[in-house]
Amino acid sequence: MEIHHHEQPDSGYASHRSSFESFSMPPKIKLTELHLKHLNEQFEKLSPQDILRTSKLLFPNLYQTTAFGLTGLVTLDMLSKLHAETPGSSPVEVIFLDTLYHFQETHQLIERVKEHYPSIQVHTFLPNGCSTASEFEERYGNKLWEFNSERYDYLAKVEPQQRSYHTLDVAAVLTGRRRSQGAARGNIPIVEMDYERGVVKINPLAQWSFDQVHQYIKDNNVPYNVLLDQGYKSIGDWHSTQPVADGEDERNGRWKGQQKTECGIHNKQSRYATYLMELAKKQAEEESAATQEGEAAKPRATALSLPSMAANTTSAAPDTTPLLTVEAIVAVPGRLRRLPRVTSSGRRIGFSRRGSRTEKYSCIVQ
What we know:
alpha/beta, Rossmann fold, seven-stranded mixed sheet, three-stranded antiparallel sheet, 9 helices, 13% strand, methionine biosynthesis, PAPS/APS_Rdtase
């Protein structure tokens, strides 16, 4: 197994694309609703191995995304066997998002997988500008996942995923999602179009149960995470993963006690744009109220800031990771003012005014 680490400088992406919106790529593969319906009807009749075999023929620039959970390992093993059948064919390479908070057992598993599948190439993407958890915490504060889980998901998973798709020119991806995992995954099709990210998603084991996946692992001597034997059926970051009790759904140990079932990479991208747009709108409304209460007649910059997105930011390193470009439309009665420039770590963000009475503000969050 060959492992490629894709690191980005603090100044931004290699492509110089600095906003969330700019990473919305047009699909390289265009499927009509009729085509999707036909593919799903046919794939429902096939085994996972045949779905993978057909996907390799149908979809160019095909990659597998995995955190080396059981389903991903089964897919990896099946792909390895398919490639052995046709050694001249293009291999399906792997994308791994290293959040910097994976269990040590997960990293140990990757080393064992590397030995077991020496021909597989793994592309590892880290949070932008960070190579260790301590660097991440210096920049964004301790336990960001607790006080701002949306921002954590974006920085640790969503942005690196976007960057991986752009860097590798991804057109289609194989995922490890299954219907038996429940929640939002309960009725996923085998083939779907992610229009926001511009990729085709294939869920080759969508029809399989946890027991089928586990049995395949045992029958085919596939390396697996030793945490499985300790009751961890679904494994992500150490801070948001717990064992599950007998009879519980396999993903019950993820984000236990929270109203959350996904880490962000399968959520709508607009979820994060809306989140930051609401902050911009709130800032504009506060500025308008302050103006009406009799601030100085001459417009001037203020020291207002967006709600803090990080803890311990007084000693944090400058936050240069680009996030989103969002726009908030706010009705501002009376005199209109320029909003301040604030970043997630307390620095300022540029807001500009357009129009007259009903104003449209552009907010670039870095």
